[in-house]
Amino acid sequence: MEPAANGNTSYAKKLLKKLIYEVELEHGEVLDQVYEEYALYMSAASKEDAFVKQNIRITKFISFLFPEGLYEHPSCPRSRKLVVPLQCSLNMLEGDTGFIYMRESPSTSDLGSWVGSGVGMVGICLAHVKAKKVMLTDGDLLTLSNMKLNLERNHLNYDDELVKQPGEAQSTLVKCIHLPWETASESELSEYRPDVIVGADVIYDPSCLPHLLRVLVALLRRPAKRENGSIETGDRDTAQQGRSPVVAYIASVIRNADTFNAFLRLVDQMDLSLTDEPMYSLASVL
Question: What is the pLDDT at residue 54?
Fold first, then answer.
């Protein structure tokens, strides 16, 4: 039994709902087939709503308020508020998704790759604070296309450099790359040499966790160095050069405790050190 393809599904659903209500109100017996038909219409409506949310594009404005103490920072506007316009689907930015790594600090860094960059919000912010290089990656080509549009809306040229505003110095290079976690090779990941990794809301899908951790481990690992026939580990090589070890910062909303615990188990299995860092929110959706 399926809802009529050519009929008015909304009308049919309302009619069945009214019929069931009136029969139950009179203490009558509703046939099981009527309940089943109504359930099918409800299921179809739910799927249709999800499809609509995924495909309809809207513009949201994300406002970042600069905290006291950073008012003199070169990237802080006079309003002390950075507003980022983003085009996204209706079901996006209930929580942003992104994964970024950078070299050194945002103000002086060559910035590597953002895996799962979504609409590009974090990358846009890092470009705003004058990170020297921002590489945004995602495994979905449609997402990458939409992200490029958002970069342009925020005066970022994703193929060359930050579009210069009047009186501003040119400093940021932005790149967009297609990089699915599942198929990213070790040789491909070894081309990136981050000093800091920043991730935003990337541990919500249990099926993606092993791939995410594999990519994280590859990016956290310094390139091995051969000396006198031996292989020096990345950490030792880092220490010899006086460089700080690679660190990953991952901000996440714990939507499901089981998923988060699965992430923690994988972190432990891969012998990574994990520390809980206190954070405060500077962003609000207008």
Answer: 54
Q: Looking at the structure, tell me whether residues 146 and 255 fall in a common domain.
A: yes
Give the pLDDT score at 80.
80
Q: In a 3-state reduction of DSSP, which class is residue 203?
A: coil
Give 139-156 pLDDT, tens digit per residue: 888 888 888 888 888 888
Nearest to 115 by CA among 183, 68, 169, 164: 183
Q: DSSP letter string over 3-39?
A: --SSS-HHHHHHHHHHHHHHHHHTT----HHHHHHHH
**Higher model confidence: residue 222 or residue 224?**
222
Q: Is residue 82 part of a domain?
A: no
Q: Are 113 and 136 in contact (CB under 8 A)?
A: yes
114 and 237 belong to one structural domain = yes
Q: Which residue shows structure tokens 């009136």?
A: 22
Residue 227's pLDDT is 42
The predicted pLDDT at position 268 comes to: 93
186/198 Cα distance (integer angstroms): 20
Of 95, 152, 96, 145, nearest to 127 (Cα)?
Answer: 152
Q: Over 50: is that where the pLDDT of 279 sits?
A: yes
DSSP E strand boundaries for 38-118: 57-65, 81-89, 98-102, 111-115
Same domain, 24 and 113: no
Amino acid at 41: Y
Is 250 contained in some domain? yes
- Domain that includes residue 18, residue range: 9-46
Q: Is residue 42 located within the same domain as residue 100?
A: no
List the structure tokens of 286.
């207008």
Q: Is 283 within the bounds of a domain?
A: no
